[in-house]
Request: fold
Amino acid sequence: MVKRHFDYEEKYKNLQGKFEELQELSRNLQFDLTDEFKLMEEKMKDIRDNKYQNLTPWEKILLSRHLERPTVRDYIQFIFDDWIELHGDRTYGDDRAVIGGIANFRGIPVTVLGHQKGRGTNENLENNFGMPHPEGYRKVERLILQAEKFKRPVLTFIDTPGAYPGVGAEERGQAGAIARVLMTLSSLKVPIISTVTGEGGSGGALALAVCDRLLMLSNSVFSVASAEACASIIWKDAGRAEEMAAALKLTARDIKELGVADEIIEEPMGGAHKDFEATAKNLQDRLCRNLKELLALESQELIQQRYTRLRQIGRFQEN
Amino acid sequence: MLKSAFGKQKLIPIPGSREYMERTEKDLGLGKCPSCSRRVSELELKENHKVCPDCQYHFSMTAWERIQLMADPGTFQEFNSDLRSLNILDFPGYDEKLDAAVNQTGLKEALVTGQCTISGYPVILGTMDSRFMMASMGSVVGEKVCRAVEMAGDLKIPLILCAASGGARMQEGMLSLMQMAKTSAVLDKFHRQGLLYMALLTNPTTGGVSASFASLADIILAEPGALIGFAGPRVIKQTISEILPADFQKAEFMLKHGMVDKIVNRLVLKDTVESLLRLHLGGNNG
Ligand SMILES: [Zn+2]
Reply:
């Protein structure tokens, strides 16, 4: 049975509630509940020390999709000033699953792009669960070329299960739209920093992750396809998603070890939603430091470094 | 069309799916066209470049059959043939799958690349072989694509890639996904040199290959009936739980929606490629 919910916080909350209740009770009735308190404290400590500190890859996936997890828009609003959202691909429509615009980042005008998941059913339907259609990728292409024209650095935020698999998406050229963004980003003349804030799923996520620096929040994941899809395709058993999550090496630490991610941003215990401001502040500082480093490079050097970075990815034997 | 091929069987495999490919191969062995049920002999098929003489159904070609079809006889010089995949993630069962694919196909990976002439024009030619783990793109396929592009760039000659792929090689995880970005970056450089890149999309071209190098050609050709798309039809069916349009994601559908330049019957493929080369490079008949 695949675990579907990230349940420690529920347990923790319950324990904490009971603990306080009992404390109240023991004060009023003067019972000696020292042993019970000790036991509960140990249980709570166990969750803090062992569960939260040692999340399995599958638990990280669940956490990356947590309903309370901050969305990209939350980060944008915290990190930037004067955020002005720009809409549409000028061809077909405005995709709500990927948002973009211009903002001020500590005095520097930047172009900001990111996948937008919703909170709750209505918002999620409006944002199509953060799964873009081709018009979303064409909007991205339009805005990154605009960023290049005005020499604005590009900051992207990744949080999507993947590009939307649907009839309309295929009719309007999902594959080509993603491919062109990959190609355009690869030689864009301005710095690009990408951050995976939640779920990085397949090519639909990768289209925003061709960059000079890839940052990942510590509970975010990046995967070639969802663990469920991989399990059902390779093992013909979606029920083995948990096992697949471990096999795919998709946690932030794995991705860094594979040489794809550059930095991991530690989240507070229990996940980014436990202390959004601290997480966002931390991310803001890291973005600032990385951007400063990249702005010191000549455009030619920047592109050359990005090219080398992409070109060397992959491991194989040759003999 | 498909229904007649599989007779009374209830389960009709979705074109491009593994079951479909396996069924097709089996039917091929039985000497029956999966589209019109006509009995075809191996020899007949071979002489007709694996195209059904009656209904023009295009059977899958191996990488080397494709090379024979396109390259001038005796001119193909393979390069980078010794690149082999590693089980980087220590993924369960991947070594065995690779061994089985190597044994079954005699290839070391799902893509064969080399230099040859086509009607006298020197080109770099790459062909994928869907028998090799559905020609999924891992580190080796990505690297071989890049080296082929770079070779064409160095020699300043056209590049022709014949795609057939189920998508990313999941067993290589993130490194396989990144091959999409890597091949796209290398092609960006190639295009800046003003050189010609033509892609031929064959059955099936989906996932990470369709969303990277296969879609980034100057001219995109497709074989009749080939499944082309980003998401596989099975995934889409699961997501939207609707009946899909009859020709959904077929080459003809993609032509109608503006995703490919031209559908080319295999029997005139070489002529078409020759014309395109002549239009770009000049000369009379090479
Ligand atoms: Zn036939």
Observations:
- Residues 8-29 of chain A form the longest helix (22 residues).
- The radius of gyration of chain A is 22 Å.
- Chain A touches chain B through 53 residues (CB under 8 Å).
